[in-house]
Amino acid sequence: MKRGLGPLEAKLLAYGQLRGLSTVRVGEVRGPLRLSAVQERKLLNRMAQAGLLPRVWRGLYLLPPRLPLGGKWSPDEALALNALMTSRGARYQICGPNAFSRYGFDDQVPNRVYAYNDRISGERTVGVVALTLIKVAPARLGETEAARTADGLTTLYSSRARTLVDAVYDWSRFNSLPRAFEWIGAELAEKRVGPAELVRITLRYGDVGTVRRIGALLEREGVAESLLRRLRRALKPTSGLIAWNPASPKRGSVDRRWGVVWNDRA
User: Fold this and answer.
1) What are phi and psi of 247, to 5 degrees?
2) What is the pLDDT of residues 195-234, one digit of tens each?
3) How far apart are the C-alpha atoms of 88 and 96, rounded to whole Å?
4) Of 42, 137, 197, 244, whose CB has the highest number of CB atoms within 10 Å?
5) Which of helix, strand or coil describes residue 253?
6) CATH for 7-71, options being 2.60.40.10, 1.10.357.10, 1.10.10.10, 3.90.1150.10
């Protein structure tokens, strides 16, 4: 065994396995291992620095399910994210590039996990798992699908339709326009997502720019006028214009109904 897994380290790991623990908090093993507060703190710090106990949050560490080969262990994405969110009492849903990959919109596999949640903002690392945490209002969480891992853990992803809406809404963060327009067109054509569902989710989770762009897209796709009117009623009269593709110059023909400049056309 690699140096660093001494008697106390092995005892802590064995205790965790015996109790079926996936996490350990400061103060939790002091009694069972007969340690002082200082000894416990030093043990946890030493094991964290050796790569045995990935730190989730202040005073909270992940425990490996079995003695790690080579003396180091890192959790998978589901365990790391679930442990962090549970420790903060947060609701979450995996979104953005991870959801794009899950539903086959993008063949690029992201090297970090993006998650909307209602508690934490910023980037964190648990073991080797890199997380981008996007704090949103609780009302912006919803429309999810549960995914089960091989280890039996459940994670929540934004649903297929919600992911499409977020690709338009959060385009600057996810660099998802104009690709998202093609994804939506393909999903409608294959009937994997229905126009009524898309309209409902756009009205609930989109902003003005999202309603305008998706309204213009759905009209171009020949969606029923009754659905288009639902989107149009959500918009206040304005003379302001937005670019269909915000990454390109705002030059092109104007769609007055939606206030969109068709800057994707020659």
Assistant:
1) -90, -5
2) 999 999 999 999 999 999 999 999 999 999 999 999 999 9
3) 22
4) 244
5) strand
6) 1.10.10.10
